[in-house]
Amino acid sequence: MALSLLALIVVPLALTPQQVEPAPGTPAPEVASASSEPPPSDAAAPEEDADDAPVPAQAPALSQGHYEEALIAESLARHGREVEPSPEGKVLTEVLIDTEEVVAESDPYPNFLNLFHVRTREEVVRREVLLAQGAPYSLQLADETARNLRALRLFSVVRVVPLKGKTPGTVTLLVVTKDLWSLRLNSDFSAVGSLLQYLRLQGTEQNLLGRGKKLAVDFTLRLDTLSFGQSYTDPRLLGSRWSLTESAAIIVGRESGKAEGSRGSLSVSRPLFSLSTPWSVATSIAWNVETNRIYRGADIWQLPFPDGEPVPYVYRTEEVAGSAAYTRSLGLRYKWNVSGGVGAYHYAYNPPTSSNLSEAQADWFRRNYLPRAEDAGYVLLALRAFEARYEVLRDVDSYVLSEDYQLGHWVSATVRYAPPVFRDDAHFAEAGLAARYRWRWGEALTTVSAAGAIRRQLGEGAEWNNRHWAAELTQVSPKVLGGRFVARGLLDVNIDDLFDRITLLGGGNGLRGAPADEYSGKRMLLVNVEYRTAPVVIKTVHVGGVLFVDSGSAFNDRPDMVTSVGVGLRVLFPQFNVVPFRLDFGYVLNGERPPVGSRFSFAGGQLTDLRPSFLDSPL
Fold first, then answer.
1. In the Cβ-directed half-sphere of 614, how many Cα atoms lie within 13 Å?
2. pTM exceeds cut of 0.85
3. Helical H runs in 271-403?
4. pLDDT, tens only, 325-353
5. Rounded to the nearest 5 degrees, what angle is found at the Cα of 33, between the Cα atoms of 27 and 39?
6. How far is it, in rounded angstroms, from Cα 341 to Cα 368?
7. Are strands 91-100 and 170-179 parallel, antiparallel or unpaired?
8. C-alpha–C-alpha distance, residues 313 and 310, integer Å
9. What is the largest CA-CA distance in the chain?
10. 514-540: string of b/e by CB count within 10 Å (b at 16+)?
11. Whole-angstrom Cα distance, residue 193 to residue 195?
């Protein structure tokens, strides 16, 4: 037991953003933030295709920056095989699986750490292989196999390599994987100076007994609450293509020490596991009962009631939602996924009795700040279209590790209709549209994203509302002095949101060096420009620097831009994490400057990955 605890301590914390989401299938009725969960692979700088990179004849030392190539060369030496330069169309006669421990012989960490990790079983890797023995070799299926394996988040390295077969005219497939440390303390956090705004610690076995299943106990600390919970994920239920995920947690008030609520979810689905999968189905149910307290910095936000004392931004939340959907997938190069579904939800929000608000204060609070209480049942129709063109890029956000990026167009359109099943005022139709296009220009990468949504209330007093749109432009430069410039511009405009979502800006959520959550409004304009240096590799640990300029405003009418400049540090431990730590220090040029210690921000991943989830899912 002591050794296992030691292993958890010496291994760097895994940085996996995992904030609790609102109940699925409904608008998110809570305060929005510039630090919304980042979706994977939405900004990157291009590099050579990792699976097409030349394989060295001899394995270079891992500390020289050839991390993945070294592993492939070692595997080729073990099997005594050679790379097949022209595999397309040749008959596949053999599939070799080569799984590497977390700590390899050439890694600068003690091998005894492998005693506390069960290496991924060969069948877990083999069942993801989409190429059939006896069929012609397909580069497209080989690349898709690698993407599926990386998406499991069990491995720091996944490479699929064609080898010369044992007989002329045949080919062998070699799948090389290197495990991530699975018995770990996952973390997600946000700190500005000495103020810890959010901390999530998750004691996790991400690869239970080497079978690819995840079991976790969960602790979340916010400024006002603690939560204790558990979760279990089985992406291949009973060896099938079905997936199961469940979670449950109890929420305790930090001041009272008493239980304030709970949250949980259950999801069963059969996802689209390949581009040729013809259908999928998904069902889910979730609940969230808690007291929400909205903070600005370290204090609860005091709202300016016009006829008396300020009103604390505190309210009671009750949310229950369920949904089911079926998807039909068409096409191969150009995908068309058509979905139909049904769902229902109950949303209720009220000031707690402990706030002791007068009737006038409570009425003013509900009309101006509380999310909209709503009970609704709905049917939906959705279309998702995209070009199935992918590239594997490296030397990007995660420095040496491979990252998958979809190029070309991506469009998602959803229409939802709610008849007056529960209440007349929950009779509406709404539509959402999200689009993205990504170009690769040599070593540069450009990504343009936009989204919009609108609702039409039906029946008596019909009107348009929930008008919301956002746009983002991200540009990654070719290499300059070994590093890259990364620039991002983001505009988020919320016009008449029934759920009264508010954006908070300042600190580590986009405007580094400013006081935490200093600026607020229903609209946001944000520009981030960074120069990311090439990493220095110290015994496989990748350390890079950042110079940055941030300029942003959270506003209701006109933006009042605040600008900061600063420097940062990025550290990646490729055996244990697939995203780096980031530590930034900012200096505000034209706004309020907090104490020096509060100008530091520390979190996981690159700042430009933080973007409103609305850009990907507007409904």
1. 32
2. no
3. 359-368
4. 999 999 989 999 999 999 999 999 999 88
5. 75
6. 33
7. parallel
8. 9
9. 88
10. bbbbbbbbbbbbbbbbbbbbbbebeeb
11. 6
